[in-house]
Task: structure prediction
Amino acid sequence: MEIKVYTPHLTNRLQYALDLVLTQVGELSFTVVQDLNLIAKDDFVINYSGTRIENSFQIHPFGLLFEKDIQNHDVPFDYRQDDFLVSLFPTEFDDLGFDVFSASFFLASRYEEYRGFEADNHGRFQPKDSIQTKIGILKRPIVNIWVKALKLLLSKKWNATFPSRREFRIVNTIDVDNAWAFKNKGVTRTIGGIGKSLLKKGVGEFKERVAVVSADGHDPYDTFDYLKNAQEKFGIESIYFFLVGNYQKPYDTNVPHSNKEFIDLVRKIHDYAEIGIHPSYASYLDAKQIDKEINRVNNITGGQLIKSRQHFLKLSIPDSYRILATLGVSHDYTMGYAQEVGFRAGLCTPFTFFDLLQDKPLDITIHPFAYMDGTLNEYLNLSPSEAKDTIAFLKENVQNVQGEFIGIWHNSSVNDLENWKDWREVYEWGLHQ
Result:
């Protein structure tokens, strides 16, 4: 069954918003109609105008999707008494009470990140400045919730059934910033590290480092066998994002991409999991450097890399996505925050990104993540028990809308040592279906 959407004025923003809400999230088919004469009495019509159409489902346009510039005014909202939770861009005298197309477009396009904002010390947009944080909906995939409610209202109005083919699924993602804590760091770095361990960390780490580099001990970041076993235990799809940038302190301190043991590790993991690029901190907005790093991974795996996640979640809207799309990366997994859990774009399902400045969708699919290990442990200072409760809340919200539940973990955070003691249980908690 196909829905007709009537609008007297069609823009690129509106076309994208309709596709996002109705097709990408709602799994509905639609056509746009701009001539009332093309609407039959028994058609299923969403009326996106101020004109009344008999038996249509009416949504009054707020105006955002007919604009071409970027406004700095506050976003109007109302709290609701039903399961919709909140309305952005509220309207009157229609069947929904707000312009769901404008609201969804505003969040998914990351409209607010085109405005001036106070960046953190890594140049990142901060969750405290997001409308979702300010009105208390960041931890809800609000766009998915709105669309689910819209489909229910449409089915009741038209006495029709709109089944969902999408199923809830968990995607396990691992960022490999450093494959090893001590091994394969080269002579200069190894000697320097041993000296630093003795001076700053004490005899314990000194002995551990010496044991590892002399092949008598186990490197604390070498958790790859454990991760593989967990993947097989829970039957979960896994993606590993490898950092292969040039060595540069303090944020890009990986082993050389040409290291034989590192190459063997990537190839081994490639046999049972997907491989993505983890563009280095130093490559931020540097297309040539990112291209070099993509080619490094391609040369190791013999494949064509299409998945990416920014190191340190350094994401510039829309520039980062433009660069990745130009380089052939078609799936990105950076959409989320380091400082807080939740849904940065209001979505927990994959969606195409819209570039406000170019006024068109980019050829890249965004996969939002719900939480990161470091967010739970280091930014929010949660105990393992509190972290499990947080994950359970987020997962339940994603399950309720048949979404894609993604967490970020690092090989270094599942070693069950020191400040990560007992966090393997948290990791596995997130993998339970």
